[in-house]
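Problem: given the chain below (85 residues), write out its structure.
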Amino acid sequence: MQRTQSPVLARLVRLNPTTVFLAALVLVLVGLFAPGAVGGVVLLALAAGPVWLMTVTWPVQAPATRVLRLLLLTLLIAVALAKLL
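Solution.
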């Protein structure tokens, strides 16, 4: 492991991508279908993961990837705030 590499990132690499996708899908569906503030909090908690991951991987991403990730994250946070309000 490199000195600059996070142990959390090293652990994330070993996770099964299908399991991670299905877990994120379940959380999104719970957040969308849960009533009011509960759904908004679930979606904001889910958005915290990609925000952290984006801050760590930002320097190595292509500009097109950065724009797409920012758009999707903005959409997720907007839906979460709409549910909270």
